[in-house]
Amino acid sequence: MEHANYVYTTGMNDAELEDRLRTGSHGVLALADGDDAYAVSLHYHYDGDRFLLRMSDHDGDAEKRRYLETTDTATFICHETTADDSWSVHVRGPVCRSDRDVDETTLNEWFPPFRLFDEAVEDVEFALYELEPASVTGRVTID
C-alpha cells in the first residue's frame, strides 16, 4: 500500500467519548436477524445517563420493529469526516422501548425535526427506545 493515502487514528478516552456523544445528534443503528442485517439512520439524545433513540412507531415500520425484536446486541455508530479530521464512536448493547414518558416539547428540545417520507403528519407517532451501552469505543484522527 505504498501509494495509498492514509491518516493515523487513535482510540478516544472516556472524556472524549462523552463529549462526542453529548454534542452529536445522529448516527446509524445496526440491527440483525440471523444472517440478515438492517441499518437505519436515526437521531439520538444522550444526557450522560441514558442513550435514547427516537423512532417513528406506526404500521409502516413493521420491518424496523421486527429487527429490534430479534437483535440481542445492537450497534449505534455516530461519526464525522472532514478533509482533515475524522472520528467515530460505536455504542453497543441491547435496545428496548423506553419507559420514560416524554412530552412533545421535550422531544423537540432533545431531537432535531423528524424527517417524513411520504407520510402524513397525523399518521406518525413516536416511540423512544433506549440503547443500554455495554461498550462504547471510538477513534479519532491524530495529527
Structure description:
The chain is of the alpha+beta class. The protein has one domain (9-141): Electron Transport, Fmn-binding Protein, Chain A (Pnp Oxidase, Chain A, Roll). It has helices at 14-23, 62-70, 104-110; strands at 9-11, 26-33, 36-46, 51-56, 74-81, 86-93, 95-97, 126-131, 135-141. A 9-stranded antiparallel beta sheet has the order 1-9-6-5-2-3-4-8-7. The longest helix is centred in the first third of the chain and has 10 residues, at 14-23.
Work out the helicity level.
10-25%
Uncertain regions: pLDDT < 50 for 5+ in a row?
Answer: none
Largest sheet: 9 strands, antiparallel
CATH fold-level assignment: Pnp Oxidase, Chain A
Topology:
Elements: E1 9-11, H1 14-23, E2 26-33, E3 36-46, E4 51-56, H2 62-70, E5 74-81, E6 86-93, E7 95-97, H3 104-110, E8 126-131, E9 135-141
